[in-house]
What does this fold into?
Amino acid sequence: MTFRLLDPTPSPEGAQPRPEALAHRRARPLFRDLAASAHLFQPSEALVEAVNVALALSQPLLLAGEPGTGKTQVAHYLRWYFGLPEDNLFRLDVKSTSTAADLTVSFDAVSYFRAANDPQATPDEKKKRHHLVPGPLWKAYDARGPALVLIDEIDKAPRDFPNDLLSELDQHEIVSPVTGEKKRAPNPPPLVVITSNSERRLPEPFLRRCVFHFIEFDEALVRKAVEVHLAATETPLDASLREAALKQFWALRDLQLRKKPATGELLAWLGVLAALPPAQTRGLASLPAEALPAVGVLIKDSDDLKQLKLS
It folds into this structure.
């Protein structure tokens, strides 16, 4: 990665801007393919036990923890471990507007009314069931062979979202609210993995139907993530510089910050350190927090930045 494309120092008289420098910029390689890196994940004994309990009880596995602890990666790891096709992992990325229908089955009213008023539409196209839009859970019920459903970051959803799934998660059956059509899960039902960043508390009736596991943010987890990321992106980072960066990372997390840096911030910062000239990273381990190069990659709260200058 070429660094310092922006250099506002005075240029020689008559020099022209060089847009080609910006045009030829290359983004730093990222490694976010969770499916490709699934085999590198190393579950803890506690996580292994939680997975086995969820499988034995046919209950959803609810994974909580800070961002960057590998919660989403668990679903991809389980798909890889059990040898399921990639198409048998069905995913819902939860948003603030998500509803239970996004996971189960929704109804395309626009296409239905269009067909109902189309003289050339077939009788089957005029039926409501023809306009049902299956969600990930419905598709998993129809999958060939065992399937896995990932409901990612459920705490982003409105509060009614988890409460509207109680029957589906408990009875393994989906009922279309429009047609009354029922869809039963196969036996055994798909494994459902749900992730939460613990941004808000989930309803107790929902929690009672899940097997819960909290993934701790610990040194072994972070070191493994760093190792995998640097190898996958072929980031040239000296071992001593990596250790110095990790030392500073943990020192920052020990402070009482509003937004502690997580794995994502650390990996991005390592990429910046690898691109900087050696003179700017020399003595990194002993630098005060406010003097760290590109500290804005790690600290993303104005109050936290002020605290660094006072500490």
User: Anything to note?
Assistant: The radius of gyration is 25 Å.
